[in-house]
Amino acid sequence: MVFARRDRGRALPDRQSDHRHGADLRLARRSAGALSTMSETTLVTLAERWRLLWNGDLALGREIIADDFVAHAAPMTGSGDDLIRGRTALEAWISGIHELLDELAFTYELGPITQGNLMAVRWRARGCYRGGFPGSPPEAIGRAVTFTGTDSLRTEDGCIVEYWGNADSLLFVQQLGVQTMPGY
């Protein structure tokens, strides 16, 4: 799918010959054509299994996460590596989040939106804080928290191979009452 450019709210024709945007359009067409297409039904099923994985069903990782999986996500503490490599590292990351939040549940608010071998979802997470987040005050323990985010996923051969995560970390730490972020 190539999105049409807009000029003052009106859609412009998608023309490669437009000297201002031609290279961008050619690149988008070439990238879209190079995608290995999975059926939308398969992607929707994979997105649901991704949600279940995040809800704590870590055994699904062996079925839906590729061996060479890479995640790009800013750490909630604002410091540390933003790359997570491999299924085991992803499962450890998810487990760590569940250690912070009791009864953690993710629901989809939008999507999955699919194109070729790509999909995106908008989610909301709810849980009860158990403690352990750096800089959180003791009175935050037991507090209900809600935060949102967007996941962009790339798939190959029925597995998720790459993930870009964007979570509203600020909302999360505000609900905990964190005054100073570690590392700052």
Give an overview of the whole structure.
One of its GO terms (biological process) is polyketide metabolic process. Residues 1-22 are annotated as: Disordered. This is Ester cyclase. With 184 residues, the chain is α+β, with helices and mostly antiparallel strands. The protein has a single domain (38-176), classed as Nuclear Transport Factor 2, Chain: A. It has helices spanning 22-34, 40-54, 61-64, 87-100, 169-176, and strands at 6-7, 10-11, 65-73, 83-85, 101-115, 118-129, 144-156, 159-167. The strands form two sheets. A six-stranded mixed sheet has the order 4-3-8-7-6-5. Strand 5 and strand 6 form a beta hairpin.
What's the arrangement of strands in the largest beta sheet? 4-3-8-7-6-5
What is the beta-strand fraction? 35-45%
Assigned CATH architecture: Roll
Looking at the structure, the CATH topology is: Nuclear Transport Factor 2, Chain: A
Uncertain runs: 1-35
H and E string: EEHHHEEHEEEEH
Compute the CA-based radius of gyration. 19 Å
Q: What is the straight-line distance between the termini? A: 41 Å
* CATH class membership: Alpha Beta
| Tally of DSSP helical segments | 5
Largest sheet: 6 strands, mixed
The chain-level structural class is alpha+beta
InterPro entries: Cyclase_SnoaL-like (IPR009959), NTF2-like_dom_sf (IPR032710)
GO biological process, one term: polyketide metabolic process
Protein name: Ester cyclase
Organism: Methylobacterium currus
Task: Tell me the layout of helices and strands.
Blueprint: E1 6-7, E2 10-11, H1 22-34, H2 40-54, H3 61-64, E3 65-73, E4 83-85, H4 87-100, E5 101-115, E6 118-129, E7 144-156, E8 159-167, H5 169-176
Parallel strand pairs: 3-8
Antiparallel strand pairs: 1-2, 3-4, 5-6, 6-7, 7-8
InterPro entries: Cyclase_SnoaL-like, NTF2-like_dom_sf
Region (Disordered): 1-22
Protein name: Ester cyclase
